[in-house]
Amino acid sequence: RVWRAASVLSSWIEMAQDLVQLQNLCKRDSVSYKDEFLLQYRHFQSLLHIFQLKPANDSALFRSLVTFLSHVAACYAKEMVDFPQQLMTLLEENYSVLDPELRLTLAKGLILMRNKNFIQPTVLLCLFFKLFRCKDKELRKLLYLHIVNDIKMINQKHKNNKLNRQLQTFMYTMLNDDSEVAAKQSLDVMIELYRKHVWNDSKTVNVISTACFSKCVKLKTAAFRFFLTSTDDAEEEEEVVPTVAEVTAIYSTRAAQTRKRKRKLEKALKKCKKDQLKEKETTPNFPAMELINDPQGFTKKLLGTLRHSSERFEVKLMCANLVSRMISCHKLLVLNFYPFMQKYIQPHHQHLTIILAIVAQSSHDLVPPDALMPIINTLANTFVSEHYAEEIIAIGLNTIREICARQPLAMDAETLHSLLRLKKSHHKGITAACRSIIGLYREANPHLLPKADRVPVVSIQKFKVSFRPTEKKNRVNLQI
Q1: Given pLDDT bands bounded at 50, 70 and 90, which one contains residue 470?
Q2: CA-based angle 292:192:225, to the nearest 5?
Q3: Would you say 316 and 309 are in contact if contact means Cβ atoms under 8 Å apart?
Q4: How many CA atoms lie within 13 Å of 309's alpha carbon, on the beta-carbon side?
Q5: 251: Cβ–Cβ under 8 A, 6 or more apart, which residues?
Q6: DSSP letter (8 states) at residue 466
Q7: Cβ(23)–Cβ(68) under 8 Å?
């Protein structure tokens, strides 16, 4: 038995080597080796019928035949018309029971034929999204890289809007798939395409926004991170494209203009013109929050899920941060958000600084002062107290200053006078916070400040200077 197994293995190795050699010969001279190719193709057809009956079996010969036929499919296009569809049918119907190595070989064969433009992208990409359900990490990684690169190459010269709409509609259904792994991978593909400026339109953003209300925590957190980080990505400085004059100045030195230097200059000028044309055609990269169709409805729905959420506190904090960003970006009126965050404003809280930043971020000049006054009173009564450390008092004063900078009407005179009693403190942080509040209200509403802290109105008479009349010599009379 050992001898038989060794002989079978050696025969498989010889067959694989022969197929590699035949593959090279078919690519060089496809007409002369057409009979040998047809012989191997008929061999593949017979093995395919066997695998359709027992798909769980593995065969090294079948894998080598799939690899060989995938490489030479473009050389025999008429004979291989049905070959891609046969592989896709085998994968789609039996992907859960196929051997992992055979499944990976079939996927690589389809990718190889797609790179040679032997398969239409729509059908293949939809199949690959379904294959994300497989419990095969190596296969999912291969499919993810191919999908991103393929869609990027399709939209490289000009946007293929028809294909993009079809795939975006299909991805919307994949986000609601029963398999959490497939839904997460589909969401990662959309986020990566948005960051590569391939799918940076409103439809992509609105499809991603549906993941914020998913029951899967991984989908939620991925969507939250996308919206919270895409704003920072949009503000990054783009690479400056050099002008034609700058490129010419680099290569026009005192050195002799040889043929090599002229070729380099022509190549650089060609690349420069291409980059400038590409820069004009690209659409501006807006933050993802600005592309949501219904920001008020989205924010209210997100706040409703936050109030009834039972996830860990870090996920709730990300959701609250997104609600705050939406309120600040679109200047929304979501008055239920402020009482909800008020109960978390406690000096002993572990995530105190993040909570205070979220509260300050959600305030703007259109928010009614009555909605922000309870938060300022809570900060004044809870933080600005002698019972707490001086650092806590400074944090409370700085938070009040940030809220009042966005909505100065949220402060009343009595609270302001009680806060400014600490301006003579020996702690530098407290005195600096008090001075910043005084400076803010000297510009915004000086009548709320005590008289001692207002800008002194200097009498104009102190600056009166007596001028003595001087004799005008050499006066020129311009009267005619």
Answers
A1: very low
A2: 60
A3: yes
A4: 25
A5: 261, 264, 265, 268
A6: P
A7: yes
382: its two tokens:
């809870």
Closest CA to 114 of 105, 125, 104, 103: 125
d(CA 109, CA 66): 7
Q: What tokens appear for 238 in the block?
A: 């783009």
Of 262, 334, 255, nearest in space to 296 by CA: 334
Q: How confident is the model at residue 244 (pLDDT cuts 50, 70, 90)?
A: low
In Å, what is the CA distance from 354 to each residue of 32, 216, 328, 357, 385? Answer: 72, 24, 16, 5, 21
Look at residue 233 and tell me whether its pLDDT is greater than 60.
no
- The residue behind tokens 């009548």 is 447
pTM of the entire structure?
0.75
Written as six digits, the tokens of 107 are 């996927």
CA distance 259 to 364: 63
Total Cβ atoms within 10 A of residue 334: 19
Task: Using alpha carbons only, give the angle 305, 307, 309 rounded to the nearest 5 degrees.
Answer: 60
Taking 70 as the threshold, does the pLDDT of residue 480 lie above it? no
Neighbours of 46 (CB within 10 A): 8
Longest dimension (CA), the chain: 131
What amino acid is encoded at 406 in this protein?
R
> What is the rounded CA–CA span in Å between residue 443 and residue 431?
19
Q: Report CA-CA distances (Å) from 18 to 13, 24, 43, 202.
A: 9, 10, 14, 53
Q: Would you say residue 79 has pLDDT above 80? A: yes
- Average pLDDT across the chain, whole number: 80
117-135 pLDDT, tens digit each = 888 888 888 888 888 888 8
Structure tokens at 217: 């925590």
Length of the chain: 480
**Of 106, 188, 174, 177, nearest in space to 145 by CA:** 188
Q: What is the dihedral of CA 386, 388, 390, 391, to 10 degrees?
A: -150
